[in-house]
């Protein structure tokens, strides 16, 4: 999971973390990165799209068994996004 404290957002930290992860993947000779994003987070989806990620069309239910803080009030859907690293 990649997350930046809301009070520290808009300072370029997320962009730097993502660039670092992408560079690490390139060093491991990966040619693409697949991520999942909560479907309702349209602003976050747009943020990834501005960085070259595209929606693949695949969707997954959020794994409820990993909810440390209880069951969500509504179903959470994750969408897959992908970026070619070439």
UniProtKB/TrEMBL annotation:
PROSITE patterns documented for this protein: GNAT
Pfam families documented for this protein: Acetyltransf_1
Source superkingdom: Bacteria
Residues spanning the membrane: none
InterPro entries cross-referenced by the UniProt entry: Acyl_CoA_acyltransferase (IPR016181), GNAT_dom (IPR000182)
Domain N-acetyltransferase intervals: 1-86
Gene Ontology cellular component terms for the protein in this record: ribosome
Keywords: Ribonucleoprotein, Ribosomal protein
Keyword Ribosomal protein tagged: yes
GO molecular function, one term: acyltransferase activity, transferring groups other than amino-acyl groups
SUPFAM superfamilies from the UniProt entry: Acyl-CoA N-acyltransferases (Nat)
Protein known as: Ribosomal protein S18 acetylase RimI-like enzyme
């Amino acid at each position: 999971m990649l997350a930046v404290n809301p009070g520290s957002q808009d300072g370029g930290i997320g962009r730097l973390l993502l660039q670092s992860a992408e560079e690490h993947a390139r060093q491991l000779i990966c040619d693409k990165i697949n991520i999942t994003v909560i479907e309702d987070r349209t602003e976050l989806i747009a943020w990834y799209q501005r960085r070259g990620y595209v929606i693949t069309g695949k969707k997954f239910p959020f794994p409820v068994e990993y909810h440390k803080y209880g069951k969500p009030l509504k179903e959470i859907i994750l969408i897959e996004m992908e970026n070619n690293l070439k």
